[in-house]
Amino acid sequence: MLDQINKQLNNLYSSLNNYSNNPGNFAQLNNANSNTDNIVHRLNLLNTFTDDKDVENLTDSIISFRRSVGQHVRNLKSEIDEIEGKVPTVNKKLQELEEEIQNHKKRTDNIIGNFQEQFSDAQDKRQTEYAKRDILLSKERGSIGIKTR
Questions:
Q1: Which phi and psi (to 5°) does residue 148 adopt?
Q2: What pTM did the predictor assign?
Q3: How does DSSP assign the chain, residue by residue?
Q4: Which of 1, 3, 2, 8 is nearest to 65 (CA)?
Q5: CB–CB of 30/19 below 8 Å?
Q6: Per-residue pLDDT tens digits for 66-102
Q7: What is the C-alpha to C-alpha distance for residues 91 and 105, in angstroms, rounded to an integer?
């Protein structure tokens, strides 16, 4: 009997954890309520009461437990509402960051393009200067009688 109650308690714990990890899954809350009912039923079978005070104490405990579970559910729903309220703001910020990244990417591409263009222009200028100097050197060598290859 106690093993069955323990199993139901583990199932209850698992259902509540699953609900907290996936707040929109109300089937987990239904499972938690079913597990609670099964626990209460098994506890009733387990206990033999000697007087009305024992029954009253158990009833109070059950009511307290159900209130506690209900409070946890309300707290979870409140947290879900709070998180859902933040989603649009987070999505907007994400979109702004994506746009900023794209702008930086375009700017970087422009800088690289400008650098490549400047490098190519400088390289062309160096080649032209080299060609001019080569021609001048060839002429000077020819005028002073140095044979070039």
A1: -105, 160
A2: 0.42
A3: -HHHHHHHHHHHHHHHHHHHHSTT-HHHHHHHHHHHHHHHHHHHHH---SSHHHHHHHHHHHHHHHHHHHHHHHHHHHHHHHHHHHHHHHHHHHHHHHHHHHHHHHHHHHHHHHHHHHHHHHHHHHHHHHHHHHHHHHHHHHHHT----
A4: 8
A5: no
A6: 999 999 999 999 999 999 999 999 999 999 999 999 9
A7: 21
